[in-house]
Records
---
Amino acid sequence: MRQLTVALAGLGSRGKDTYAKTAKLFPEKMKIVAIADIDPAKVAEVAREYDVPAQRCFSSAEELLAQDKLADLMFITTQDRQHVGHALPALKKGYDLLLEKPVSPKLEECRELLKTAQACGRKVVVCHVLRYTPFYTKLKEILDEGTIGDVVTVMGIENVGYWHQAHSFVRGNWRNSDNSSPMILQKCCHDMDLLLWLTNKTARSVSSFGSTYLFKEEMAPKGAALRCMDGCAAKAGCPFDAEKIYLTDERTGVEKGNTGWPCNILTLHPTPESVREAIEKGPYGRCVYHCDNNVVDHQVVNICMTDGSTISFTMSGFTEQNSRFTKFMGTMGEIVADLHANTIEVQRFGKAPEVIDVSRLSEDFSGHAGGDNRMVEEFLDMLIEGREPARSMTTLEQSMESHYIALAAEKSRLEGGRMVEMEEMRTGDL
Ligand SMILES: NC(=O)c1ccc[n+]([C@@H]2O[C@H](COP(=O)([O-])OP(=O)(O)OC[C@H]3O[C@@H](n4cnc5c(N)ncnc54)[C@H](O)[C@@H]3O)[C@@H](O)[C@H]2O)c1
């Protein structure tokens, strides 16, 4: 079997903690031969872990891209607004790409990347990892078999989770769309991609509403301090308190044994001491009512498809779980797909309901419900075997549609809910 060589650009949560690890899972299929990050500590750690020689360790993706082509493919896992700037030269150098989503918050960049990838004849797979999960694979199979006839209405919700909202979209990397992406693109391009893929439909028009309801100064409770650890009088009753989320919470707190995400975003190797220090001094200890965030905490999107069927989608930060729940209503029955419960309930009209327990279908649900590793393996297999993308694979062409819908939703939201035609996004004047 041919072993592919990989260059990793961006060694953060995705690059270092997710995709680098696949080199150990599939050693016969891939080897990391070059790495780049602006943080020397991350470069040193990955170099040590994966035996990358010093002359192949770079202090930025730009420096890596200034070299001759060093590997068969590149994983681009830098931040949202950097992806296209890194992907364009990589394509021109001849790399095939595993590209983190969102491709870009700028419509013109999305279009430019698509054009360049086509001109260079390279493969670009966007990391819509949920497609590869046992859950969505099974759901796709059921829908494609026509089990509920033609899908006419879909109702979907992404439950972001109150602590995830606070971590990523109020205090963290994706809090401000001027530096990252609108939330409906950053978080929900996955949902838009899944909804299109699962229904095999094309969107015609989109409208959307949403706002930052809670996480702003005027909503701060009486006595709230600027930082959670600075004697905040509202601390006891505040679920967004950094001490609860990062130190004491059963699910997320380092004191309860969680040394992975989200604690490892605060400090490279979380311990109760290092996390405490991070929330005392760093951005993740800021009061959620006093941050420089501007992204929404709730948004609804209505999509009319070209065949007249409709999708309504809600994203909400005000949920306990961070998971997805979707109801598909078809001409012959309905399906309730509950990712948190890992169940798919199929109700054919006039028949007994059938509940599929997806947890029985696989042993591996690690990393995005089992999607991360499967996606990388599928991508490697496609390149090794020189075949066309599998049914689950999200090519750049397909990914663009999810991005166009998300960007249309944001445009609509900013224009008070005006209906946006999808053709405007695909080919309209920029
Ligand atoms: N597919 C998914 O489900 C999924 C999940 C989470 C995040 N993401 C996306 O993945 C991307 C990375 O997210 P993350 O959570 O790993 O963020 P992160 O901040 O942990 O990682 C980004 C890394 O890029 C590095 N970097 C910045 N500038 C650089 C440069 N010029 N050259 C090289 N490295 C540079 C940073 O130092 C950091 O280590 C984001 O675009 C995010 O939206 C996708």
---
Amino acid sequence: MVKKVAVIGSGIMGQGISQVFIKQGFDTLLIDISDEILENAKNSIADGKYGLARLVQKGTITEEQKKVYMKNLSISTDYGKLSDREFVIEAVPEIMNLKLKVMESIEKNIPETSIIASNTSGIMISEIGINIKNKSRLIGMHWFNPAPVMKLIELVKTPFTSEETINAVIALANEMGKEPVVVKDYPGFFTTNFVHSWLVESLRLYEKGIAGKEDIDKMVKLGFGFPMGPFELMDTIGLDTMKEIGDYLYSETGDERMMPPPILKEMVYAGYKGNAKIKMNSKGGWYDTDKL
Ligand SMILES: NC(=O)c1ccc[n+]([C@@H]2O[C@H](COP(=O)([O-])OP(=O)(O)OC[C@H]3O[C@@H](n4cnc5c(N)ncnc54)[C@H](O)[C@@H]3O)[C@@H](O)[C@H]2O)c1
């Protein structure tokens, strides 16, 4: 049974994943590149938008419980502290060279029996783990944002991931009240292919002038019961992120339906990168300009 875990990268996803682990009683080590980033992340886990304070306000947990959960969290910039971790998940930015470097540092520092997971949204796990020597312990564990709220975990197995690893991570996900679904390794897995093609198709229909942005969002929400329309969702994911995902899926699969449409590129090049993320360098999202 896994008891000691580590999360690499204390951004949006790393914070959410750590919060779920500490609430479930796991001894959780959170690693990032600077003490300042880590202190901010710790504060956010305690008191941020989706942090534990929100649960105190809602009456789901007490202030006392919040303190106990926070004691399960330690922070460090030192990968050497991974030496006693049984499970490690990386949640660093979606940059291939960075992921490769981080995966190598993880394997160098953890015990031989520990599991190495990646929270990538779509890069093939086999590629991220290209330098991992023991590939039987490598797995994709794709969480959804916000991690404390969303129930799904997409587990991605490569041809070399062992049954033991898959079962251990299924058990881990279940223990945290999540619903794991196991899929095969493929660029974009299931969920990223699905959501990306749906968003691109919405953009194509919008470009054809079939309906306006507000009306498309309205139709998708009221007609199909989706919590967000495609334009709202793109703004949340980040338009630059969506463009990067499209470029990656097209380059890996040759599927032209995945190519970022010109209108999306125009938005990104003009500085509109979405609005829901804390994007300091974004002018806003689809609803902040009427030029496109
Ligand atoms: N944001 C989402 O909605 C979402 C959803 C599912 C999966 N993901 C995936 O999760 C991963 C992380 O995304 P995010 O949105 O949390 O990113 P983010 O930019 O918010 O956070 C990344 C963190 O990693 C840290 N970092 C950078 N280099 C590092 C290193 N060498 N060692 C340790 N930490 C390092 C950064 O300082 C930052 O705090 C990506 O692979 C992304 O595709 C994101």
